[in-house]
Amino acid sequence: MPLPNYGVLVGTVMDKMDSPTAMQKNPGSKPHYQVLIDANGTKFRIAVNVKSNQQPSDLQFYMSSNYAHPILQHVKQLEPGFSRLPKQPNTAALDYIRGNLFDINDMRIVPTLLGGPNNDLNDIFDAHIQHALDTPGSLVYAFGDRWGPENNARDKYFDFLPGNGIHDIHMNQGNSGSHAGDNGIYQDGGLFIHYPDEDRWVAMFLKFQSQVVHTVDDDDEDGGTPIDVPVLPEEENAVRIFAALVNPKANDVGDEFVYLLNATDKDIDLEGWAIADKMKKKEVISDTILRAAEVTKIQLSGRAAQLSNDGGIITLLDRDGLKIDGVSYTKQDAKKQGFITVFRK
């Protein structure tokens, strides 16, 4: 079953506790970085994994210190407190695979604890949470699964009552074994921080090494479960979304197009591939050979995938429906009519 109480907690930092200190406070607990949050007068605890209890134990991590993505249009509208989120596209719900939140290939393995400063997950979280604590008006947005309120149980780390919190601040699909029951689409976790003095967003995303990145794209109980696929051909993995015209000078419908780049020395038949938009509408490609080391233009008919001028995502799928590449663009990117947005230079 997917996460039962998926949503986002919005609030200000009151206190924090790194993983070693937290485990001393609560012996036998799993390694988590703990954050005490005030959400409109109610206390919550954010429990962020810094280590897996399965091997390999170190997590994969991606962070942007100046994050820009159309999902922020939805996130900015959230009020302090906990909000349930619909597990759907074009909402504030996170999906690492379908939302093109970042290039998942850019995730790196980061150890939990290492000697020295700024070189492990505890250090990274501590630096940004401390900055939020020191910056008036900063807000933390924690995406995951809520627990509580526990009216008869004080919090084990910060000793407040009733116990309240949010965990699973990581990818929540592609699991097998004991965590297979947590799989679902549009229910991934993550941590955003907004610093108002700079109007800057920091985004942090976590994934266990055991989680796979191709999952069933259904809204039912099979959604988010791993797909057992053969290794994709090297040529397919080298097809990239290079650029797009998202805001034509003429009527948008039927005049938008996407440029695809073949970075290999072999021609690739794109018959049956598709371009998908932020609403998961798919424009199927036909009669197109992407020549070696060339770029081809895919015209969108306007009857399927459409590129919103308010910001959106563009996803390239192969003939089996597997994601090959994905990009995002903001409302600012789409502001100039008739200008091509370039994603890879």
**Count of spatially separate domains:** 2
Distance between the termini: 42 Å
Whole-number radius of gyration?
21 Å
Number of strands: 20
Number of helices: 4
Main beta sheet, described?
5 strands, mixed, barrel
Q: Any idea what the shape is?
A: globular
Q: Structural class from helices and strands?
A: mainly beta
Low-confidence segments, given as residue ranges, are none
Residue-averaged pLDDT: 93
Strand arrangement within the widest β-sheet reads: 1-2-3-8-7
Portion in helices: under 10%
Order of helices and strands: EHEEEHEEHEEEEHEEEEEEEEEE
Percent in strands: 25-35%
Description of the structure:
With 345 residues, this protein is mainly beta. It contains four helices and 20 strands. The chain has two domains: 6-207, no CATH class; 234-342, Sandwich (Immunoglobulin-like). The protein is 8% helix and 34% strand. Strand 14 (274-276) and strand 15 (282-284) form a beta hairpin. The mean pLDDT is 93.
What can be said about this structure in brief?
By secondary structure, this protein is mainly β. It has 4 helices and 20 strands.
Search tags:
2 domains; 20 strands; single chain; 345 residues; Immunoglobulin-like; 4 helices; mainly beta; globular; five-stranded mixed barrel
How is this fold's topology laid out?
Elements: E1 6-17, H1 19-25, E2 32-39, E3 42-49, E4 59-64, H2 72-75, E5 81-84, E6 108-110, H3 121-134, E7 139-150, E8 163-167, E9 190-195, E10 200-207, H4 234-237, E11 239-245, E12 257-262, E13 268-269, E14 274-276, E15 282-284, E16 289-290, E17 295-299, E18 311-317, E19 323-330, E20 341-342
Parallel strand pairs: 3-8
Antiparallel strand pairs: 1-2, 1-5, 1-7, 2-3, 4-6, 4-10, 7-8, 7-9, 9-10, 11-12, 11-20, 12-17, 13-16, 14-15, 14-18, 18-19
